[in-house]
Design brief:
alpha/beta; Rossmann fold; Four Helix Bundle (Hemerythrin (Met), subunit A); 3 domains; four-stranded parallel beta sheet; 16 helices; 46% helix
């Protein structure tokens, strides 16, 4: 089964056929750095992070481009509110972005352009659009003429006539059509500005991504992605100005992830439910957030609720607990540290686990089905261990462990050692004194050796009351924090 992706432009799943065999060019719209990132940003970034991982696992050479919008009305307005320089505010939030996304295990894109690095290229594209009759200068502001571009609205499925009739865009008498959008904005006192043929000013938002994607990927490339909130007007406008300027196709496949709500409500600072990534990381382990954000299909809406996150945390604890058991039986460290992502899924067809995993991922990146397969495999491995593994069973466990690590690498999970994972989850979930726990475990061991089973049971019950579960094995007692 070939990889099929839902193409927003055609509104159907299509077999992915790269523009250049064995290579993929992907542009994902990055953040406008006026504030800290929220869990909606995390979802979008994780979706395309996993897509890149999957392409590389299948053996593709990927050029992954993700931008920063570091000059924009929102940045300027927030900087004024905070009494900061817009450039300094943008730098601070870019640093915060790297910190937050790093904790979530995101891959570093191959290119991370910033809008302010490409102002001359934007001016060049605007010149071309004016020369071709697709744009016009209106007293220092330059607008794109939407009615000159015949297929405007095709990407988002809107008709220009309807948009004109129901437009809520602020009236600007200089515009030839209410939906005409800014390519260049005339400078206002105290705002960042650059010289241009139309006077000092700064670029409009939409032109930034057209220029940066084209610079690194060409006039036509494979995939353009982002949140569904970007479909209109941002991506519609990107497509219009790019095709008009270059004559290329621009993106051949468009992918959009669904919204994130919090406790069934749209995120809003006025409602007090605006959840930043930092807020979430103060409550949950990064891999718990990662697997939760992948637990629903990327195109579906996702509701961020405490109960739903804790359900996935419990599942991830179970996976790590199983890995800990396997490690104790195999008597060696796992191989995940040396596992290469590139080409790890190049020949999965005959594999009883990786074959179905690929089928799930090939179905428009169905991470929920892929995660379900991992949980099924964990159940199988526990049954093998419960039966008392012989030499054949140990061989199967070794193979299954490798399979798990390959799948986990694609999803970006199971990168911790079990003991470290349990300790971090415990520290986020409750005040746990590790030294005290180890001391109680030693006391329980002595009580058992002295056949003081009442005290041993008392200690087990005490720890259980704190959420600490004990597991006795041939190599001693291990503990975990149970959610």
């Amino acid at each position: 089964m070939p990889l099929k992706l839902y193409n927003t432009a055609t509104r159907r799943k299509e077999a992915f056929i790269p523009l250049h065999e064995g290579k993929v060019g992907l542009y994902a719209c990055g953040v406008t750095v006026y504030d800290l990132c929220h869990v909606g940003h995390a979802r979008s970034t994780i979706v395309f992070d996993v897509l890149v991982r999957y392409f590389r696992a299948r053996g593709y050479e990927v050029t992954y481009v993700r931008n920063f919008t570091d000059v924009d009305d929102k940045i300027i307005d927030r900087a004024k509110l905070l009494g900061k320089d817009p450039k300094a505010l943008a730098r601070e939030n870019i640093e915060a972005f790297y910190e937050d996304m790093g904790k979530l295990g995101m891959l570093t894109p191959d290119q991370e352009p910033r809008a302010t690095q490409f102002i001359p290229h934007m001016i060049d594209m605007i010149r071309v659009l004016i020369d071709k009759g697709y744009a016009y200068d209106a007293d220092g502001d330059v607008f794109f003429a939407v009615d000159r571009f015949e297929s405007y609205g095709k990407l988002s499925g809107r008709r220009l006539e309807d948009m004109k009739a129901g437009s809520r865009v602020a009236v600007d008498e200089r515009k030839r059509h209410p939906m005409d959008f800014a390519l260049w904005k005339k400078a206002k006192p105290g705002e960042p500005e650059w010289p241009s043929p139309w006077g000092a000013g700064r670029p409009g938002w939409h032109i930034e991504c057209s220029v940066m994607s084209g610079f690194f990927l060409g006039a036509t490339f494979d995939i353009h992605g982002g949140g569904e909130d970007l479909l209109f007007p941002h991506h519609e406008n990107e497509r219009a100005q790019s095709v008009a300027a270059t004559g290329g196709e621009f993106a051949r496949y468009w992918m959009h992830n669904g919204f994130v709500t919090v406790e069934s409500e749209k995120m809003s600072k006025s409602l007090g439910n605006f959840l930043t990534i930092r807020d979430a990381l103060a409550l949950y382990h990064p891999e718990v957030l990662r697997i939760f954000l992948l637990s629903k299909h990327y195109r579906s809406p996702l509701d961020f609720s405490k109960s739903a996150v804790l359900d996935l945390q419990t599942g991830l604890v179970r996976i790590y607990r199983t890995l800990q058991r396997v490690k104790s039986i195999l008597g060696k460290e796992t191989e995940k540290e040396s596992l290469s992502l590139q080409g790890s899924l190049s020949r999965p067809d005959e594999d009883p686990f990786l074959g179905p995993f690929v089928v799930a991922m090939n179905d428009d990146l169905s991470t929920p089905n892929a995660i379900a397969l991992i949980f099924e495999k964990i159940t199988e491995m526990n049954k093998i261990m419960d039966a008392g593994p012989d030499a054949e069973a140990i061989r199967i466990l070794q193979e299954d462990l490798h399979r798990l690590h390959v799948a986990a690498k694609v999803l970006g999970i199971l990168e911790e050692k079990p003991e470290a994972f349990f300790e971090k989850v415990a520290s986020l979930s409750a005040e746990v004194n590790t030294a005290e726990i180890e001391g109680l475990i030693e006391e329980r061991a002595r009580a058992r050796s002295e056949k003081n089973f009442a005290r041993a049971d008392e200690i087990r019950a005490l720890l259980k009351g704190r959420g600490i579960m004990l597991e006795d094995g041939p190599k001693g007692t291990t503990w975990r924090y149970d959610i």
